[in-house]
Structure formats: C-alpha cells, structure tokens
Design brief:
Length: 262
C-alpha cells in the first residue's frame, strides 16, 4: 500500500485545508508513493517512538503533533527534532502529522474527548465559519443529568486517568453544561463563559487565566498530552473504517513529556 492511500483516508475526514496558518500538518518526511506495510499511531514523534516503529517494522509514523513546526536550517543532530528527522530519513520511515485539522473538524478531537466524558448534544464552541458545518474549535454539550461540580471533576480525573486537575474556584455547585477544547484552549475561556457553560476544560492555562473565570464558570486544566491522547484512538477509527486489513499499531511508547511528583 502507498502512503497516499492512507493519507487520503485521513484527509477525507480531516482536510488539510482546515489546519491553522501556523501549523505543519501533512506528510513531513517521505514520498506519497512510497510503499508501506504498516503504520504506528502516536501523539508525538520521539526517539522512543522511532525505536518502536523500527521494532514493529512500520515504515510510517502518524502523529498528532508535527515534529517540525519551524523551518530546519541544518541537520547536525543538535536537538531532538534534528535527530528524529535525520534518523527517520536514514531508516526510511515516513512521518505524517494530523494536527489542527483534526482539532477543528466536526467529530474531531474535542468531540472524541467529550464522548469519553459522557457529554451529549454536542455542538461546536467556536465555529470556523458560519456555514453550519460543525467545524471549528472546542465543543459544548450537556451531561445526561446535573451533578455536583466537584464530583464531575473527580469523575473526569478517573475516566481520563489524570494525575492532577488544575482548576479555578468552583463557580457553581452543580454542572450540567460543559465546554471543552483539546490542547491549548485558554483563548476560548470567554467564549465558554458567554455560551453559559458551567465548566470549561482545556489545557496550558497560565496563572492569570484562572482569574479570568471570574466566578462565571469553573475552568479546568487537565494537561495538554492528557487532553489529546485520544488522537490515537480517533486516528485508528478513521483509518480502519476504510482500510480494514492494513496493519495499524497504537504506540505503547507515546508518553507525556511532563512529569508529576505526587
């Protein structure tokens, strides 16, 4: 099977045209007509993930985050990005990323995380275009029944196997309407508040972002990796629905670069 056979399936669900201007989704290393026998799915391409790809015989690594964001001026092994790209080229391993196009498409990353949390009646929080497509960033939806906010946070921690949840003061005793955005989502705090959400879940909040809640809603930072680990299952589902016999592996080495001492 050729790489383009696999990437065409991904891009039919998450078109590259939906990626943000700063992003670098798509085929990063390799050629579309290269033959591959299996692929490895991960959140980030790391040296451990390349070890895993080699051991599995996977000639293609499909990640959520692109290994290259900024242009490379040299390949001297000076940092992890250079080492990974150089090694992938030498070993004949293609690298493909599906990032903000997967974040921003209807039924993409935020929708998948919402499903994991039992949130229903989903709609896009910040539409990309007013065209009714459902594309855009974040979602908002309802729990099947109202529950205490503190209990919801504990339930979320358990469902997602979180080590920690950073959150603002609990604004409302109970929660029914939930907004969330996978990855860095502080920019949508105001949007979530204006939409009437009881709680907003995302990642990468700065200190002052917790003040921005201002008693209107509870904001929760669950961690970037933790919010986007669902990319592996989501990409697996997208690919296997169309390519039922292709050898697709979920990385066991895809790990959080942030460590917690508890």
């Amino acid at each position: 099977m050729q790489i383009k056979d696999i990437t065409d399936v991904i891009e039919a669900s998450a078109p590259l045209s939906l990626q943000e201007p700063y992003d670098n989704s798509g085929l990063i290393v390799g050629h579309p007509d290269d033959e591959v026998t299996s692929a490895l799915l991960c959140v980030d391409v790391t040296e451990e993930v390349l070890d895993e790809a080699e051991s599995l015989g996977s000639e293609l690594v499909i990640s959520h985050h692109p290994i290259i964001f900024d242009p490379l001026k040299r390949l001297t092994g000076a940092n992890h990005v250079q080492r990974i790209v150089e090694r992938a080229i030498k070993k004949g391993i293609a690298l493909y990323a599906c990032h903000t196009n997967l974040d921003g498409v209807k039924d993409g990353m935020s929708y998948r995380l919402a499903e994991q949390l039992g949130i229903k009646e989903l709609s896009v929080l910040s539409p990309g275009l007013p065209d009714g497509s459902g594309n855009g960033f974040g979602i908002i939806g309802s729990l099947t029944k109202e529950m205490p906010t503190a209990a919801f946070i504990r339930d979320m921690k358990e469902r997602l196997d979180l080590k920690v949840v950073r959150h603002s003061d609990i604004a409302r005793k109970d929660v029914r309407l939930v907004a969330l955005c996978t990855g860095s989502g502080a920019s949508l705090i105001e949007t979530a508040a204006s939409a009437g959400a009881d709680i907003y879940i995302a990642a990468d909040f700065k200190y002052n972002d917790f003040f921005r809640a201002d008693g209107r809603l509870t904001v929760c930072d669950i961690g970037h990796f933790e919010s986007e680990y669902c990319a592996i299952e989501l990409l697996h589902d997208i690919i296997t629905k169309k390519l039922t016999t292709f050898a697709l592996h979920k990385s066991a080495k895809s790990r959080n670069p942030v460590n917690y001492t508890v």
